[in-house]
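Lab meeting, item 3. Inverse folding demo.
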């Protein structure tokens, strides 16, 4: 049976870990290098580090922090933010990243996914898909027979004319080895993952899915896995001290019957 991965996420802005609601109202959480080691010590299976202002500021991810985190940890590190070219990705791999995340640039130029997969292998390419439930302009819920999700880019501030499940299928065909699927509607809200979004993505792609946005309890994580996620991204619940990764693994194993991995190794 495949093990469920628990992956802390560090959203970084101006060199600090931040967290907000639907990618806004950001509050300072702390130093990314310190928090990376804390969560690795707790047994994180992997770590995701996203420079969330790199795209809007038209710059590359700060590689110095990735290099500092890599020097302390021996678990896989996935990095994203501002990756627009093979050279941008190379800098992150050179700093110690195991995988890179592309989002806005891949939507603008899908060939970037294929270029990365060809050079580094699909296993090293993660396509992040930030999705929100489709609505008419003006805020009225769209009346369709099938629920749709629209892709958001540039930190969630721009909705593009891509249906999220179709984009997931396309990204997989282009070489994405993993999909990081975030519900914009649920991000930071603590109301649980959008299970319909996860299920829809599972039907559209055979790539591993990392569910993100809305987790508050171990039960939320179990629901995401049952909906089709291979891994679960966690942030606020750890940042706010509501739980630890050890406690989550115990709950998922003993209460919900899921297979979890042992803690990550440290250098």
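The presenter then showed the designed sequence:
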């Amino acid at each position: 049976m495949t093990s469920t991965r628990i992956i802390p996420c560090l959203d970084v802005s101006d060199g600090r870990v931040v967290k907000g609601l639907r990618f806004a109202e950001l509050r300072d959480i702390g130093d990314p290098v310190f928090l990376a080691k804390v969560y690795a010590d707790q047994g994180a299976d992997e770590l995701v580090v996203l420079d969330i202002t790199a795209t809007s500021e038209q710059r590359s991810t700060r590689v110095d922090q990735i290099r500092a985190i890599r020097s302390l940890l021996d678990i896989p590190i996935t990095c994203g933010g501002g990756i627009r070219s093979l050279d941008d990705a190379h800098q992150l791999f050179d700093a110690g990243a195991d995988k890179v995340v592309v989002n806005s640039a891949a939507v603008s130029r899908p060939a970037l996914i294929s270029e990365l997969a060809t050079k580094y292998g699909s296993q090293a390419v993660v396509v992040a898909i930030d999705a929100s439930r489709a609505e008419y302009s003006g805020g009225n819920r769209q009346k369709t027979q099938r629920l749709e999700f629209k892709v958001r880019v540039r930190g969630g501030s721009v909705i593009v004319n891509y249906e999220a499940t179709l984009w997931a299928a396309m990204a997989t065909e282009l070489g994405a080895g993993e999909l990081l699927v975030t519900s914009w509607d649920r991000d930071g809200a603590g109301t649980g993952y959008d299970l319909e979004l996860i299920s829809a993505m599972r039907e559209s792609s055979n790539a591993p899915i990392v569910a993100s946005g809305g987790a508050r309890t171990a039960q939320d994580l179990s629901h995401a896995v049952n909906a089709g996620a291979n891994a679960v991204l966690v942030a606020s619940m750890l940042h706010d001290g509501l739980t630890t990764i050890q406690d989550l693994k115990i709950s998922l194993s003993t209460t919900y019957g899921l297979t979890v991995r042992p803690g990550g190794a440290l250098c």
